[in-house]
What we know:
Elements: E1 2-11, E2 15-23, E3 26-31, E4 38-43, E5 48-52, E6 54-59, H1 72-81, E7 84-89, H2 100-113, E8 117-122, H3 130-137, E9 139-144, H4 152-161, E10 165-168, H5 173-176, H6 182-195, E11 202-204, H7 210-220, E12 226-230, H8 232-236, H9 239-246, H10 259-270, E13 276-277, H11 286-292, H12 303-311, H13 314-329, E14 344-353, E15 372-382, E16 385-389, E17 392-393
Parallel strand pairs: 1-4, 1-5, 6-7, 7-8, 8-9, 9-10, 10-11, 11-12, 12-13
Antiparallel strand pairs: 1-2, 2-3, 5-14, 14-15, 15-16, 16-17
Helix pairs in contact: 2-3, 6-7
Bound molecules: (4S)-2,6-dioxohexahydropyrimidine-4-carboxylic acid and zinc ion (ZN).
Amino acid sequence: MFDLAIHGRVYAGELAEAWVSIKDGVIVKVSSEPAGRAAATLELDDAQILIPAATDLHVHLRDWTQAEKETVETGTKSALAGGVTTVADMPNTVPKLETGELVEARVQLLKDRSFVDFAIHAAPPAESAELRKIRRAGAFALKLYPPDLPSFRGLLKRAGSEGLKMAVHAEDEKMLAAGRSPEAELVAVRKILGEVGPRSQVRFAHLSTSEAAHAVLAKKQSHAGLTIEVAPHHLFMDSRTSMARIGEASRVNPQLRSQANSRAMRGLLKEGCFDFYATDHAPHTLKDKLTKGAPGFPGLELALPLFLTKTEDVPLLCRMFCEAPAAYLGTRKGKISPGYCADLVVLSRRRWRVDPEKFVSKARVTPFVGEELRFAVDQVLMRGSTVYREGGFVRHPALLAR
Ligand code: DOR
Ligand code: ZN
């Protein structure tokens, strides 16, 4: 007997009516008829569809000394509310995640508090001997920020030999002093492309310009380990619209660009040029945004509905936000298919307006404020159990992906 059967319109390679039968947290069967008796049945309504839950490769959960901005609890509840059941945490915490000991403490904090499964990026350590400890403690990748880029080549080699992946924030540190221009991204991307080998595994985080994307795409033809991550705000927002809505709080790194650029980015998106859709969920207090120019927006609760509202492309969303990032982390998630984890999202076609005051995240400043979205997350399951529904959360054990 199955634990649960879900019946309705299901995205399993195509959107079609199906029964999804689940046992012990795993999808056992996807069939056009009921596959057998189940202890419980979930019947979707006509407005609802079932898709795999998302994996977000770029999330700043903060906590520790920055709990005012976000905690693991608020950040990961925010993830669930947005249909995300795995997050990859970023290492620019305070203190910075650059030792094995700190990675261990971070893993423990997430095991104790996270509402979703997780993976950990570490920062490059001062001594390369520390890389092994960082890997053993559970980090899966290094994340390089602009000041780290001069050491890119050496770090790539050493990280690779320890089995750590690498993600890079590509903006040229020296050029940033003169303002965060699109050229600063292109220059950094070109330098990195000049230093990678044919088998290097490098993920370009939040690429913001179509020029930089074209440069990576050209190199990708012969260097299959290069991947591109894009963020909602660089695809669906531009600097002018954001300034009109939230003024000086528009700051994010890399910056929002022109309308022409975001149009070009959406063109590339539609052609399937990008590997991963990731939020760069970067929570800050309103005070830090206004008085310190703190860069970044919360993204977890909007990313999925926003993507579908703007593109209506369920297969592309499922590839870039579910299947590809899960495969990258090595988890059996992101597909509604036998053998895959029953991490699922019930979405409905329903109109709602973005009201940051209602966010689960502590961060409340977004340039998408007031926009009408046409898709909403109704319910989220992890390993076959409901963990989010109508604003209510249930915490299940959080697993580390490494
Ligand atoms: O906008 C950003 N926010 N870009 C970054 O590189 C860091 C991030 C943060 O941690 O706030
Ligand atoms: Zn980031």
